[in-house]
Amino acid sequence: MKLPILAYGNKTLKVDCDAIATNSDDLNKLIDDMWETMEHAYGCGLAAPQVGETIQLFVVDSIVMYENADIDERKANFIEGDEGMRETFINARIIGKSDETWDEIEGCLSIPDIFKRVTRPWSITIEYLDRDFKAHTKTFHGTTARIIQHEYDHIRGVLFIDRLSAFTKKLIGTKLKKIMSGKIFTDYRMKQ
Predict the structure, then answer these.
(1) Domain coverage including residue 139
(2) Is 44 annotated as a binding residue?
C-alpha cells in the first residue's frame, strides 16, 4: 500500500526514533509498504518517520542510482565492483566514517523540489539488522554510503537541510514555507 509521505514542517520528521524490539507481521507489512511508497515516488531511500512511524527503520535502493548514472558518474560515485544494493535497515548504528569526504547534490521526498550540495564521508561502516532480523556489519562507499547516511539522519531527526549553511537555508526559505503550507505539487501523496 502506498503511504503518504510527511512534508517538511511535520514534527514527526524531527524525532529521534525508537529502536525496534521484535519482528512482527505489522513490521513486515510496514516494510513492504515503505518499499512500494518509495518506488512509486521514484526515490532511492525512505525512512519510517517519513511515513509517520518513529522507529529506527529505513530502506535503501542504490541500484536505481547506479543504473541511471552514466559511465563517468559510475566511476566517480561507485567503487569498482559496486553496482548498488537494495536493503532494509533496522536499528542501524554507524560505527565508522572515513576522513575522506565529498560534496554531492541531495534531495528528499519530504522536501520536494529542493536539491542542494551536502558534504558527507565517502565511506561508512554500519551495524544493522535486515528485515529477517539478521545482524550485519558492513562498509559502504560513495553513493550507497551517501543514501544510507541521509536515511540514517532521518531516524535521528535530522534532515539534509539541517546540514546546510545558514545563508543557504535563508535562500530556500520561501520554498520551505510553501512546502509547510501544502502549496506544492508532487506525483506522490504528501501529508502535512
Answers:
(1) 5-180
(2) no
User: Per-residue pLDDT tens for 140-159?
Assistant: 999 999 999 999 999 999 99
Which residues are marked as active site?
A: 151
Q: Which of 88, 77, 76, 11 is nearest to 46 (CA)?
A: 88
pLDDT band per the 50, 70, 90 thresholds, residue 184? confident
Q: Which residues contact 97 (CB under 8 A, 6 or more apart)?
A: 121, 123, 124, 125
Q: Tell me, yes or no, whether 137 lies in a domain.
A: yes
Cα–Cα distance, 123 to 138 (Å, whole number): 10
Instruction: Enter the DSSP assignment of 56.
Output: S
How many domains does the chain fold into?
Answer: 1
Q: What is the reported pTM?
A: 0.97
* 3 state DSSP class of 109: coil
Is 185 inside any structural domain? no
Residue 189 in any domain: the answer is no
**Residue 154 labelled as part of a binding site:** yes
